[in-house]
Design a protein that fits this description.
This protein is of the alpha+beta class. It has helices at 3-7, 11-14, 34-45, 125-131, 148-161; strands at 20-25, 50-55, 68-73, 80-87, 92-95, 105-116, 123-124, 144-146. The longest helix has 14 residues, at 148-161.
Length: 162
């Protein structure tokens, strides 16, 4: 018997409804994404993926492997969607990314980025607002859930463009 049969169905198949979550990247804060994006864009453009950890804000539960991850650039123009991927773990706690944070521990999740857009040419907020007019696309922290149908529509635009 192979290992996949012993372990049962993958989490994304076991749970019939996927969810979609916003993850934020703000170049004005501690993390400057430009050097990483310069390395990652050719990898993803060549069919690869980027495995990484991302902060979940105050969220400590509710994310599962297979959920859709939407990375939105906030803080500096141009703002908008800069990456897509999948959540690949449940939420776990780890050191806060900001050493000046009031709480030293925060939530983290593993994600696999499979589509990246240039940080200076994101899918604009105006387009995101047309797709999901009632959604706050620039929340204060990562981990905000958006309706899966909205997430999938955004995904369809990006994957078609990549």
């Amino acid at each position: 018997m192979d290992d996949s049969a012993r372990q049962g169905a993958p989490a994304e198949e076991a749970r019939p409804t996927r969810r979609a979550f916003l993850f934020l990247v703000n170049p004005k804060l501690h993390y400057d994404p430009y050097p990483d994006w310069a390395k990652w864009l050719p990898i993803v453009d060549g069919g690869g993926a980027i495995d990484m950890q991302w902060n979940t804000g105050s969220r400590r539960s509710g994310m599962e492997p297979g959920d859709l991850a939407l990375l939105v650039k906030v803080g500096v123009a141009p703002r908008g969607l800069v990456a897509l991927g999948k959540v690949t773990s449940t939420i776990y706690e780890g050191p806060h990314w900001n050493p000046d944070a009031a709480r030293p521990v925060t939530g983290w999740v593993d994600i696999r980025l499979t589509a990246l857009l240039d940080l200076d040419d994101p899918l604009p907020l105006s387009v995101l607002k047309e797709i999901g007019p009632g959604i706050r696309w620039t929340p204060r922290m990562s981990g905000v859930e958006v309706p899966i149908d909205v997430g999938e529509e955004v995904r369809g635009l990006v994957v078609a463009d990549v």
